[in-house]
Amino acid sequence: MLSLLQEILNWSQGLPAWQSDAVARLLAKQTLTAEDQDDLFALLKAANGIPDPKGRKPNPLTADQIPAPVKATTHVELLAMKNMRHVNAIAENQRLSFSPDGMTVIYGDNGSGKSGYSRVLKRACRARDQMEAIHPNAALPASQTGKAESVFEIKIDGSAQDEHWTDGKAAPAALSSFVIFDSHCARAYLDSEDDFSYVPYGLDVFERLAKVCKHLKTAIETEHTQSAADLTAFVPLHGDTAVGKLISGLSAKTTQAQIEALATLSQEDSAQHSALDKSLKENNPKEKAIQLRLRARRVATIATNAINKGALVDNTVVVRLRKLADSYRTAKSAAALAAQLSNLRKVKICCLAPGEKFGVSCSTPPGSLRQNPIRTRPSQNWEPIHLVRYVSNLLLTAPPVCRVSSPSFKPRQRKPPKSAD
Question: Are residues 219 and 41 in contact, defined by beta-carbon separation less than 8 angstroms?
Fold first, then answer.
């Protein structure tokens, strides 16, 4: 068995520090506690660049944790244990001897100290189980207690000598040649055929280390799932742009330089960003969009009404409306022109029927009356506006106070004023 533990020590020296620490814990304890599992998980992450907030460091398996190698020709005998101090309530300066031949049986009542001697033997001789603590005498004040200690009488190749042991310090190498076995130092298996088998101390460390590694793998996967980055926030940025392609392909191979290159804005980008920010602050796009939608609905309503109303008016009505409009504009123009002429000349305008001749007579002194009869051409249709324009041009050059008359119209002569007598 000693050679097996030495082989395990040599093998553990090629393992990562956290695995060697796990081997040391597995050799010292039959079952790892939750605290041990947490320590190993933190050491595993620290070995891969994830710092431990508690600053825990690995304690690899060392030679002083397993029995020291002894030459095959060396013979070591345990003769006695003596001068035990600070071990439960065991009396000090006592000697417990062991027979070099045969079997030594130690018996006594409960609380007589049998387990106390066993704990010291296991701790000094580097037994597999190191979990049982060695307590001092509870009846003594704390100032009078200390570390457990004992003296071992041994014989090496016939030479007797004393080896002093103190709890918490490295045990003498010669004591590691003794094998201590109890119910905490062995594992028993009951196979499918109900055969009882025994696994030597140290041989089961490989299977237990594999289980520890499997447990740590599960813990890593769970933590990775919980701490995985939520990339759904970057979905709107996916696309054919450089940023979209980088985000959609984010992985462990993505370098920080690639991210910084796309995250750094040029002067043009900064200027454009400032312009857009200013524009958004000046014009609220939401309110502007609402206004544009309202205007679009109003324009669509007006266009629909115009189309519907236009369908109600046929071409005949349109032609009639145009003629009425033209007559209205002509009459309005004639009335305006007649008003102007009446202000310039006191003229009475008589409209003639088509084909009727008309003349102009002026109320001037006798002998100076001029008549200028004009006959229209039979083929010429005189409109009122034509007559008005002609008379206006004529009156501009005619003497004052003229009248336009037809042949049936006789100008009335002015009566001379009555004399005073």
Answer: yes
